[in-house]
Amino acid sequence: MIHTRELTRHFRSGKETVEAVRGVDIDVGEGELVAFLGPNGAGKSTTLRMLTTLLEPTSGTAVVAGHDVRAAPAEVRRRIGFVGQGHGAGEDQRARDELFTQGLLYGLDRATARRRTAELLDQLELGGAADRDVTKLSGGQRRRLDIAMGLIHRPGLLFLDEPSTGLDPHSRANLWEHIARLRREHGTTVVLTTHYLDEADAVAERVLVIDHGLVIADGTADALKAKVSGDLVAFTTEDEDAARVGARTAENVPSATSVEVVAEPGREPGVRFRVEQGDRVLPDLLRSLDAAGVAPLTVGVQRPTLDDVFLTLTGRSLREEDAR
Ligand SMILES: Nc1ncnc2c1ncn2[C@@H]1O[C@H](COP(=O)(O)OP(=O)(O)OP(=O)(O)O)[C@@H](O)[C@H]1O
Q1: By CB neighbour count within 10 A (0-12 exposed, 13-18 middle, 19+ buried), where does 313 fall?
Q2: What is the pLDDT of residues 59-88, one digit of tens each?
Q3: Name one GO molecular function term (predicted).
């Protein structure tokens, strides 16, 4: 469905050249659900805009839905749906008319456009807002209308740029339900961008981690997490002295790495470290701690998260980047 080679996009910004996308090779097969995950400014939107023909590549190639984005942009556009970050909906129409008109624009006959409009308004819970002016919709309703507009012609390939930004948890769950149904019933291929770690993890079957204009990792969330060295084991102790003894004990656990004493104001002291199969080493660890005279107050094992993946790859946390 998508094949890019050395896809690149530069922007001139005054005297500077911003290398927003620096030569990416992306292959997405039919029916896949892929998330581009990366911090703000990583190049996700720029990549998506090139794939949807909204932006010309500086160099490299991209074939989308069987057609080259540069040589046959109209062919590409007919076969894809795109929901951007901004509001695509116009200003002075009722939501229902806006959606219906979009259907006609995509070449649907009036009966089909009307039927799909009704279906989408219902599925995206826009029924109550259908006869309101687009300008009078709430942020969440406008977002859902944008999404409905991207779906009206039932594209085989759907691009969603930060689809759940601005949606409340209920609408977000609805959106994913709708997308799951599209895929089940029509085999739609879906490519989305997100900087929500948990969303990429829960929703996407495959995650492309993008940073500074490059794809730095590509795989299922589980496969990416398996590359992070081990689970995080953490236990808390009565005081810092006990934590130091506990840390020495932890260092003797086979395959333990990054053992550190946690001593931060306002937090219980303790120890954390990484280890293969944390749940398997716990029984031995507890016995050894007992033998060393340390009685842990709490013990926990945490599987790696996609943030750990990003941290391992870049030395930075996606959460910190988002907080900026
Ligand atoms: N029209 C433009 N002119 C100049 N620089 C641009 C332009 N569009 C994007 N950039 C720059 O290109 C880089 C990549 O931006 P892009 O919007 O693709 O990132 P992103 O990963 O989608 O981030 P976000 O999640 O914030 O949308 C950024 O440094 C951005 O400032």
Answers
A1: middle
A2: 999 999 999 999 999 999 889 988 887 655
A3: ATP binding
Dihedral sign of CA atoms 25, 29, 35, 40 in order? positive
Residue type, 285: L
Residue nearest to atom 29 of ligand 1 (CA): 41
Q: Does the beta carbon of 40 sit less than 6 angstroms from any atom of ligand 1?
A: yes
Q: Tell me the pLDDT band of 324, cut-offs 50, 70 and 90.
A: very low
**pLDDT digit string, tens, across residues 19-67:** 999 999 999 999 999 999 988 889 999 999 999 999 999 999 999 999 9
Record the pTM: 0.81
305 lines ligand 1 (CB under 6 A): no
Tokens read off for 235: 């236990």
The verdict on the CB of residue 168 being under 6 Å from ligand 1 is no
Partner residues linked to 161 by β-bridges = 193
Judge if the beta carbon of residue 39 lies within 6 A of ligand 1: no
Nearest CA to ligand 1 atom 5: 11
- Does ligand 1 come within 6 angstroms of the Cβ of 282? no
**Ligand 1 centroid distance, CA of 58 (Å):** 14
Q: Is 166 in the pocket of ligand 1 (CB under 6 A)?
A: no
* Token code pair at residue 34: 């892929």
All structural domains of the chain? 2-226 (3.40.50.300), 231-303 (3.30.70.2250)
Regarding the beta carbon of 44 and ligand 1, being less than 6 Å apart is answered: yes
Question: Using CA of residue 218, residue 219, residue 224, residue 226, what is the dihedral sign?
Answer: negative
Adjacent-strand bridge partners of 311: none
Q: How far apart are CA 243 and CA 238, in angstroms?
A: 8
How far is ligand 1, taken at its centre, from the CA of residue 36, in Å? 14
